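---------- Forwarded message ----------

FYI, see the Alpha/beta hydrolase record below. Original note from H. follows.
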Amino acid sequence: MSSTELPETAAAAAASTAPRVAPVAVAEGERLSTVELPGLTLTVRARPGARTGLPPALYVHGLGGSSQNWSALMPLLADVVDGEAVDLPGFGDSPPPDDGNYSLTGHARAIIRLLDARRRGPVHLIANSLGGSVATRVAAVRPDLVRTLTLISPALPEIRVQRGALPTALMALPGVTPLFTRLSRDWTAEDRTRGVLALCYGDPASVSDKDLGAAVTEMERRLQLPYFWDAMTRSARGIVNAYTLGGQHNLWRQAERVLAPTLLVYGGRDQLVSFRMARKASAAFRDSRLLTLPDAGHVAMMEFPEVVARAARDLIAQADAS
């Protein structure tokens, strides 16, 4: 199997790439770069390791997120990995893919192509939510690219969907996104941001005024992108479609095929991925360890970065020592 041979799904209609509307925020110690691949342009946020020769790590965000979601965790691991966080196609500062493919397979193929092009594998792959399902598929089909796998609230199929995840599922239905955009046209960027924080954080009040302001600024930037809702809708549809796949492409079957040592992180207050899935995931990944955080929501790496960093550090140290 070649590096890009993953199960094909019907390509979405081609999305046009718009000019940048504003620069994205870059934290001190980070740097942005652009990786040009045939039909695909990816923005990569780098947090170089504290010294040369450290093993590479790649961070993958969730639906509606970006590489900025890792700015709290990356410096805490900079002494053990040379970290890079990618903006998935159509998110963050990455423009849409030329083929309009936002399926789970399309996102996984983008990660594989990035790693192959830069020859950074095997990496310590760290992912959240949608990124967790993407990373699971990458680890299953290309074990040579993944040294360890850290999954924070991974979006794996659930029979009983969390109430908070229903809007994402509904977004996948034709006509729902245009209706929502009409109904929410009077919402400010701050309204939308506070709604996202209430959904994703175990304790939204823990977000500082500074971080809230930065999140509002980023929301304002995203809302100016003409492809923002298209990327959200098609990626949501990609998750729903992936949940229905059977056979070898089923995500739980692929989890069972993962060879890399795996850290699973679940939040007790997660409104999008059920805390009860932790036990099933722990049984599915053959070489796994589980970290449960009762007070965390969907983005534990942003709410409790120190705790997540300690667990990831232990996993990385054990793997690199073997």
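H. also flagged this: The two ends are 28 Å apart (CA to CA).
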